[in-house]
Design a protein that fits this description.
The chain has 81 residues and is of the alpha+beta class. Helices cover 54% and strands 19% of the residues. The protein has one domain: YefM-like fold (3-Layer(aba) Sandwich), CATH 3.40.1620.10. A hairpin with a 2-residue loop joins β2 (26-30) and β3.
């Protein structure tokens, strides 16, 4: 991952966008402090899909909670009071 200053990024924006299209990530700095990251759009969608899959898998690993002497309907009704 390359780091470029803001002035250089403005000067070479089309080149940096082309590199992002090829899969590279570029950090843009202002006064030597990172302020932005240029990444391919496809990576964001893929990252969200991976996060969604992990969240679903975590939910599927949950064990059901048994509450002796109460039905789901009773618990819902009590929760609405």
């Amino acid at each position: 991952m390359e780091t470029v200053g803001l002035f250089e990024a403005k000067t070479h924006l089309s080149e940096l966008v082309a590199r992002a299209e090829q899969g590279e990530e570029v950090i843009i700095t202002r006064h030597n402090k990172p302020v932005a990251k240029l990444v391919p759009v496809g990576d964001q969608a893929r990252d969200r899909d991976v996060q969604r899959q992990h969240a679903l898998a975590a939910l599927q690993r949950f064990e059901p909670i048994a509450v002796p002497g109460a039905t789901v309907q009773e618990l819902i009704r009590q929760g609405r009071r």
